[in-house]
Structures are given as C-alpha cells and as structure tokens.
Amino acid sequence: VKQIVLAARPSGMPDASVFRTENVELPPLQAGQVHIRGLYFSVDPYMRGRMNDAPSYIPPFQLNAPIEGAVVAEVLESQVMGYNPGDLITGGLLPWAMEAIVSAEAIKPIDTQSIPPSYYLGVLGSAGVTAYCGLVIIGRPKAGETVVVSGAAGAVGLVVGQIAKIMGCRVIGIAGSEEKIRQLKTEFGFDEAINYKTTPDMGAALAKACPKGIDIYFDNVGGTTTDAVFPLLNFQARVPVCGQISSYNDTATPPGPRILPQVVKRSILIQGFLVRYMKEYHAEAALHLTQWLKENKLKFAETVVEGFDRLPEAWLGLFSGQNMGKMIVKA
Ligand code: NDP
C-alpha cells in the first residue's frame, strides 16, 4: 500500500521535497489489531514542529517513517472485540498510509448517524476542542466583552469566533483574504473582520473595530498581528496563546513581546496552552460543540483536497492560507 514518509528535515519554509511516497506491504494482522483504510486525513500546522529534530512535547517524526496525524478510517478487518468491518473510527496518531495495521489503543469508534465523518478531524476533533478549551476555560468570556481572534478563518479560529458570539461577546476576526473576511462577516456572524495582508495600519483598523478595547485576544498566529493587538488590551484582559504559525518556519527565535510593562499595569493574563494537556475538559467541550452543531448555533467549514497523493500539497497550503476552515484530504 501507498504511504507518505518524511524524506528530509526542512530548514525554513518546507517544500514538497520533504515528503516521499512509497509502496509497502502490510504485516499480517495480529490479535489486538485492526486493518484500516484511510478515508479522511487531517493536515495540521503543528506537524511542522515534529519535522525538526528537537525535543518538544511530542517526539519528532522519524526520517523515512510515515507522517502521523489525525485520520478517519474504515475498518476492513478486525482482531479486536467491538470493531467490525465497515465500522468508522478515528485516531490522532495514525499513519499517512492508504491502509494500515494499527493497535486498538490508537483508535476510537465514531458516531456518524447525524455527524459527517470528517467533522471528527475538525469541529469535533482537535480544532474544536482547542477552541473551546482556550476560549472558554482560559479566556473566560463574559457577555458584552470584546474578543479578537487571529487565524480567524481557520479550523480553530472559526470555532473560537462563533463560541464567543454564543457567549454574547463582540467578535473581531483577523484573516488573510477578502473572501475569508466576507465569509466571516456574512456566514459566521463575526461583527467585524480585518484582512491583515491588505490593511496598512492594523493598529488603527483594530482600534476602530474595538472602540471599547479588547478583553480577550485568542492568538493563533503571533508576529506582527499580535504586535498590533497588544496595545489595545484592556485592564484584566486574557490572552490564550494557542499557536504562532507566523514563526513556525523561522530559523531564528523571534523577539519577545515588548508589552510586558503594560501586562503588569493592566493586569493582563497571557497563557499558553496545549489541548492535549487539558484532557479534563475534552468531554465537556465535545458535549457543547455537538449540542451547538445540532442547534445550528455553530457552523463549520472544510476545504477538502481530493486524493491521497495530495497530502503534502494540502499541508503546505496551510502556510499560505489555502484553507477556509479545516484543511482535509479525502483519499
Ligand atoms: P488553520 O486552519 O488556522 O490553518 C492555518 C492558517 O494560518 C492558514 O489558513 C492561514 O490563514 C494562517 N496563516 C498561515 N501563515 C500565516 C502567517 N505567517 N501569519 C498569519 N497567519 C498565517 O490551522 P488550525 O486551525 O489547525 O491551527 C490554528 C493555530 O492553532 C495554529 O497556530 C496551530 O499550531 C494552533 N493549534 C494549537 C493547538 C494547541 O493545543 N495549542 C491545537 C491545534 C492547533 P490566513 O489566510 O488568515 O493567513
């Protein structure tokens, strides 16, 4: 079967040469294992960190071994009680392979009665749960507050903005294309949205959109976008730091925030978090997200790239904003 491996560790912005497609034979199925066929593959910004040979919260990808990520798959054969051919499953660390033999611990069943299977990679997967944990648990939004989210049209950002609206906040999104800005305002209920690629003075644009200042800044991108947001933070503002995609391909460490004197004076809370270490909130998040989807209070968007071979292209596209909502590859 076809699989995609890490062929080389990139320096700076990666290109397709860091990946290689190869054909391998599957080992025989053993007790405790299932044979799966990948249907939907998630591509995620955090995978860039795993390409570096550096210690982190998750070990680096191994050279010449398959890339791993979240996958929705169909069971073809099973040596595990409770899994039968035709069942749909998901797992967060499954190989980029058209078929694979995996252990029962790596997968869990999914309910696709009223939920599209691919949603388990997005709004009901890591992205949605991350949005919930960062905004609700760390940000603690109150009705009437102003929330700004960067990376607003991506998988996490779309959910952050809509939860903030559900909680009665004024919501401003920052994203990188006119079409994204239009959709945030017309389809996803954002009060304002600002294109960071075409707005010459982000500080002025944000000040205009946030006349009462900013109470929560949910940061997905960092860099100059975050520089523009910080001066507008209110007394006791909260800043859940979710991601810093603008620096993932940097070869040198970017300068630290210059805002720290104001962080003291305004009693601002800046807190980084990883959704994987907030497991105690995952069930609560899934419950609320599912409920909001069913009540049509929460909408989601996906950019689906067709074809297993296009996994590298889809992943690289995250760094130039090719996706609205969750970027997914359909095998
Ligand atoms: P997205 O769906 O948001 O895709 C990435 C988006 O980032 C692109 O669409 C692009 O949109 C934007 N982007 C790319 N390069 C830049 C840049 N240089 N400056 C500003 N924006 C840029 O991805 P996710 O929703 O999966 O992830 C969003 C963030 O959350 C990432 O930083 C990710 O690492 C982080 N994350 C953190 C988790 C945690 O546990 N802390 C868990 C999951 C994700 P645009 O067109 O607007 O530029």
TrEMBL record:
CDD domains, per database record: PGDH
Domain Enoyl reductase (ER), chain residue ranges per copy: 12-329
Keywords assigned by UniProt, alphabetized: Oxidoreductase
GO function terms (MF aspect): oxidoreductase activity, acting on the CH-CH group of donors, NAD or NADP as acceptor
A Pfam family of this chain: ADH_N_2
Keyword Oxidoreductase annotated: yes
Keyword Oxidoreductase annotated: yes
Regions that span the bilayer: none
PANTHER family (alphabetical): PROSTAGLANDIN REDUCTASE, PROSTAGLANDIN REDUCTASE 1
Protein name: Enoyl reductase (ER) domain-containing protein
